[in-house]
Amino acid sequence: MTLTARNVAREQPVAWNTHKARLVLTDMHVILPYMRIQHLTGMAALAVALIAATVVGIDAVAPDALIPDALAKGAAGSGKGSDIGGPPHEEVHSDRSRFGIAPDQLSDDAKAARLAVIQKEYESLKRNQDIIPVRTRRNRVIFLGEMRYAPASKFLKGVFEGDRDERTRVAAMLAVGKSGDFGTIEGTVKKAISGARKEPVFASNLPRMFEHVTNEEARKWLPTRFKQKDAEVLASIVEAVGFTENPDALPKLKRLITDHKSVEVRFEALRAYGRCGGRKAVGKLLVYLSDEDWRLRMAAAEGLGYAGEPTSIEELKRLIIRGEEPIVVETALEAVARLGTRDAVEPLIEGLRVARLRARQKARKALVRIAKNEFRMAKDYHVDPMAWTSWWTKVKRGVDPDDPTFSESETASYFQFPIESDRVLFILDVSGSMKWPDQPRDSGIRPSDWTGRRIHVAHRELFKALRALAKQNQGRIPKLKKGETSDFPLVPSEDGDEPPTLFNLATFAGVVTPWQKDVVPASTENVEAGIAWILKQLPRGGTATYDALAFGILANNVDTVFFLSDGVPSLGRFEKHETILSEVRKRNRFKRVSISTVALIVGLSPIESVRKYEDPEDMADLMSRIAHENQGKFSNESKP
Question: Is the pTM of this model over 0.70?
């Protein structure tokens, strides 16, 4: 019989209870890479797994383990939105959670057996570039990395150097870092750096690699790679050094901060200085809180948050003022929150007065946490500085405030993402596939399962969010006479009046088309005009994912993007997943636009030859990483 990883991944966990003993399938994506088991259920599926375990001689069945069906849902699991059920996941699962077992907890004998099986399987698949074999290779590489097994290093390095799939090579590079073998880590890093001119994506992934490197020799060695002429490559190395938390790197980082011409390198060096130096780094970082370049002030604030010295809260307050760059204020508030004990309360409350809404929401959450941890009080006064000030005044007097907490205020949402920003851009995919699936009578879908074409689902959620914003904005938009214009405030007024939420819309297929040149108030009139414009954008063409993301990052007066798509990238400046992710990280280094993503593959393509490009797993993996790497959230609304 013919067997595939996709069908194994989609199979639900199968349990068999006999004499109160439970056996549950586990790790089937490693043991049975090609099994087409969608027609095998219950005892038949269990028998297949037990036979496979016997054949390969390793522990394919374990108590209380789960089949890794997360592979069929993407790296971030299956966060669901309003029409399909349940709130979205806020965090991307670790690779380890995708396997149902902890690979590093296997015995050495079991790890050796897994390695041998995977090596043999890889050799049989490495020339096949179809979706399923490529994903199978990549998942095996990820599994080997999670085993934390040094003897796998040589094989992983070979995959990094020789595989034809860029994503699999990046996965192998990260797995080498987790394996813990210094010689292999060294060789892989050198290869990534030396090849950066032709293949920059690997050097840009060095920070991701060193997030997981535990080998002390490798962590101490990495700063020796600072002699790089390419500023972008050096910035990646410096960021990676930050994750090593190596105090021996401080002298070299200090020289980069002081002498290097590239602001990207100096920015990353300041951040790394805080991570590596701890309290020893505070003095140097404090100097840069007053730098004339706002990007270095931002980096210094972030570095102080990493350094972990609560006394620096007093200095960070200098950045929490009206007139400072909004992203600098937000970063200072994040640093104060990270350091935060009760000393953080007053600057966080000040942030509620002077920061933009996205930053104020972060300050609010920090205050809620401090009230609970420091004072054992369940308080949430939302983003109201007066209410938090009143609470804090009573707490300082030793009075236990007996006033009730505020009831939860109604907040506009998009696929159940709370819209915690007042400068919002919605980007909607209108590629040709968004008109799928056809009506039930034409597509074969059961009428009860048909919720409309993808574009209909997208419209429904977008229009609901826009109208909620308009309702929320009532009373906040000044009435202007004909011909008058207004510069809308960025932050609350001195009297505490909330600024209006401003929004814009954009669609993309082969090109990006914005509705307005700039954000406009979310009034009822503007919202209805935006809805009418969206309805005229008919599905056509391909999917230029990178171009749409780049537009969102560069858009004027926007700090939050909601990005919905149904397709794997097929057009645009960049199409490869890892390259898109790398380039988006670079563009968003300073601006730090929050990008929340929605993957929407509802129903299958009516064109059989096109269905191989309709890959929910790949789509979910890409969209979840876009969100995770850009301060956003991810929701998987796919229901193929």
Answer: yes
